[in-house]
Write a structure and sequence with these properties.
The chain is α+β, with helices and mostly antiparallel strands. About 60% of the residues lie in helices and about 15% in strands. Helix 3 runs parallel beside helix 5.
Length: about 130
């Protein structure tokens, strides 16, 4: 029974995935326009952030829309198809759940932030530091 349920959801993802990606590309928000100096500061600070995601996960799409709206150039890692990224997520964050934002601290430690609403809130607060 467990195998049948997994097969059902895998088939559902395969069928709905292209539609999710099409909708994302057609409705992508325009990004914030900053001065060149402000955007350079954003890009430098964004190097400490990595988003672990599945390409067709609706919650990951929600976070990527926030990234586009805030013009945040954050590295994306595909934890679904990249075994290295999946292992990093599981070992560092403790579980394979996406979206997950890895936040690097100055001392080299990392904070792993799960849940799309929490990630979006953190990204909004992060971007607000540069837009004030």
């Amino acid at each position: 029974m467990k195998t049948l349920i997994r097969l059902f959801f895998k088939t559902l993802r395969i069928v709905l995935g292209p539609f999710i990606l099409l909708r994302e590309s057609l409705t992508r928000p325009k990004g914030v326009v900053r001065s060149a100096a402000a955007q350079a500061r954003v890009e430098a600070a964004s190097r400490d952030l990595v988003l672990y995601q599945f390409r067709t996960c609706p919650f990951c799409v929600k976070v990527r829309r926030t990234l586009a709206a805030l013009s945040l150039p954050i590295e994306l890692r595909d934890a679904q198809h990249d075994p290295v990224a999946r292992r990093e997520l599981e070992e560092g964050g403790g579980k394979v759940q996406v979206p997950c934002l890895r936040i690097a601290a100055a001392d080299g430690s990392h904070t792993w932030l799960y849940e799309s609403d929490a990630v979006n809130q953190h990204l909004t607060e992060f971007a607000a530091r540069f837009d004030a």
